[in-house]
Design goal:
Blueprint (H helix, E strand, L loop, with lengths): L2 E2 L58 E3 L6 H8 L5 E4 L2 E3 L16 E4 L3 E4 L16 E3 L2 E3 L8 E3 L8 E3 L2 E3 L4 E4 L5 E3 L2 E3 L4 E5 L6 E7 L2 E3 L6 H4 L7 E5 L2 E7 L2 E3 L6 E4 L3 E6 L2 E3 L6 E4 L2 E6 L2 E3 L3 H9 L9 E4 L14 E4 L2 E3 L5 E5 L36 H4 L7 E4 L2 E3 L2 H4 L7 E6 L14 H9 L3 E3 L2 E3 L3 E5 L4 E2 L1 H5 L10 E3 L5
Parallel strand pairs: 2-3, 3-5, 4-6, 5-7, 6-8, 7-10, 8-11, 9-12, 10-13, 11-14, 12-15, 13-16, 14-17, 15-18, 16-19, 17-20, 18-21, 19-22, 20-23, 21-24, 22-25, 23-26, 24-27, 25-28, 26-29, 27-30, 28-31, 29-32, 30-33, 31-34, 32-35, 33-36, 35-38
Antiparallel strand pairs: 36-37
Length: about 500
């Protein structure tokens, strides 16, 4: 979720040359190739404008689906055996005009769209593809104008496992364009202008394992502006991940979403977020919240958080609203993953509203009324009722009942800030590690400055070997401690060893 203190549960070498992107707020970002040596991917996933074409003829053995026959796709799916391939002719395919009408695939079915094949919900049907059949494939098909309810999805509505969705356009739907199941592969798709999420990666029956999201364009989602309609709901994003165990998020273009670009919320673990272009999202490019063990590398992160950052600053809030926000998340060796820390390296940050904030809410832990992930506990202690007075004040529960921002290693990144590009005068220039003063509930063992002291000095959070260009400031311990570069590098903080700060390139 988003707001702290009970209200906010959320809120390499260096790149040699800064890249440019001249779009203003409200304009669509046009991607530019990353410079040589940046670590960021040069090719951008422009799949909405340049989709890969599907087969122009039915593959051998495929069942042909006729757009002139209403409900032909659902009917032929029902009458055909498992492992059938369906080829959808060019044109607009329709289901019965009843809200629960949908396609219910069988195991191993494959749905291939010819160039121009569209499955259109006509704002009448809620779901396009549902059911629990595993190993379904959907390729080269446009799925649009379905009206899934809040928190539900249009494609793979029931989060079945092993689906492959490739080279599809999933656009102009309510709710989420798609849901995710275990072992799902989402490649080369256009997830555009859906009402809530481009994809909602959530499986209510347990951890969602081994998710691949690669080479997609994820843009303009949250057209319903749900954070305004339900303030602090934490229910939006280009993609939202919940309790995902193992995810590779690579080579995507995530841009111009209303709110956050990528948001991992509550007990996610073992993420690799690499070679993406994250730009011009209204909120943070990336939030990693109450989660564990991730590698964030070789991304180009540009012109994010202008809307939400400016809104917070204009309201007088001195919290360092960040473009990459690590909230109660850290490396944990006891949780099995490909890494035992959160490592952020070889990324280019250019003209975002602030940089990276490491945050820990002193009042947020298992069984606390301030924990907005209500009912959830950490991956180290899965029984919230054990996290109560008096045992919580003793080992191991004192440690295991908290999500902690710890073992975060931020290095060999390039942070570029030109305030004239942002049209910003203050509070857009922050790098931060901090917590609030613990006050709640009465039986909390984390009151006072204990958590602020720990996240700042005792939990292995470290910046080093970075390059800063522009008027950067640094916040440590709590929002009131705003430091210059020398203070940030000096005692007692001793951050950014071997890093450099200069006003502009060439200085």
């Amino acid at each position: 979720m988003n707001w702290r203190n009970g209200a906010l549960a959320v809120a390499a070498s260096a790149v040699l040359v800064a890249t440019g992107c001249e779009s203003a707020p409200g304009e669509r970002a046009e991607p530019t190739s990353a410079p040589s040596g940046s670590g960021a991917r040069a090719a951008v996933a422009r799949v909405c404008a340049e989709p890969a074409d599907g087969p122009t003829k039915a593959p051998a053995g495929a069942v042909t689906v006729d757009p002139a026959v209403i409900n032909d796709l659902a009917a032929k799916t029902k009458s055909s055996p498992a492992n059938t391939t369906f080829w959808l002719r060019p044109g607009k395919h329709r289901l019965e005009p009843e809200r629960h009408a949908q396609v219910i695939p069988k195991k191993g079915n494959r749905y291939l769209g010819a160039p121009g094949a569209v499955l259109d919900g006509r704002k009448k049907n809620q779901y396009a593809f549902g059911g629990d059949a595993p190993d379904v494939t959907i390729r080269h098909l446009t799925v649009q104008r379905f009206v899934a309810p809040h928190d539900q999805g249009v494609v793979n509505h029931d989060s079945a496992d092993g689906w492959v969705i490739e080279h599809a356009k999933i656009q102009y739907n309510s709710g989420a364009g798609m849901m995710a199941g275990a072992r799902q592969e989402v490649r080369g798709n256009c997830l555009r202008e859906n009402g809530q999420y481009g994809m909602n990666a959530y499986k209510g029956t347990g951890p969602l394992r081994d998710l691949v999201v690669e080479g997609n364009e994820i843009t303009g989602n949250n057209t319903g502006d749900w954070e305004r309609r339900r303030e602090g709901c934490g229910c939006t994003g280009g993609i939202k991940f919940w309790a995902v165990e193992g995810a590779d998020i690579r080579g995507n273009w995530v841009h111009d979403n209303r709110g956050t670009g990528l948001w991992a919320d509550t007990n996610n673990n073992d993420f690799r977020i690499e070679d993406n272009v994250l730009e011009a999202n209204d909120g943070a490019a990336l939030i990693y919240e109450t989660s564990y063990n991730a590698v964030i590398r070789k991304n180009t992160i540009r012109k994010n958080n202008w809307v939400e950052g400016r809104k917070g600053a204009s309201g007088g809030d001195n919290f360092p609203f960040a473009t990459v926000y690590l909230s109660e998340s850290g490396g944990e060796p006891r949780v099995r993953a490909r890494t035992d820390k959160i490592e952020v390296y070889r990324n280019l940050f250019e003209n975002n509203w602030s940089g990276i904030t490491l945050w820990e809410n002193a009042d947020r832990f298992c069984n606390s009324p301030a924990n907005t992930s209500s009912g959830d506990c950490t991956l180290l202690e899965k029984e919230p009722d054990r996290c109560a007075q008096p045992k919580i004040a003793t080992a191991p529960l004192y440690t295991d009942c908290r999500w902690k921002t710890k073992r975060v290693d931020i290095h060999t990144n390039r942070f570029v800030l030109n305030k004239s590009v942002l049209k910003c005068t203050e509070r857009c220039d922050r790098m931060a590690v901090l917590a609030n003063y613990g006050t709640y509930p009465k039986w909390s063992p984390y009151k006072g400055e204990r958590v602020a002291d720990a996240i700042t000095h005792k939990q292995g959070n470290r910046w080093h070997d970075n390059v800063y260009v522009g008027p950067w400031k640094f916040v440590a311990h709590d929002p009131s401690r705003v430091l210059d570069f020398g203070q940030w590098q000096g005692a007692p903080y001793e951050q950014d060893e071997n890093s450099t700060l200069r006003v502009r390139d060439g200085d």
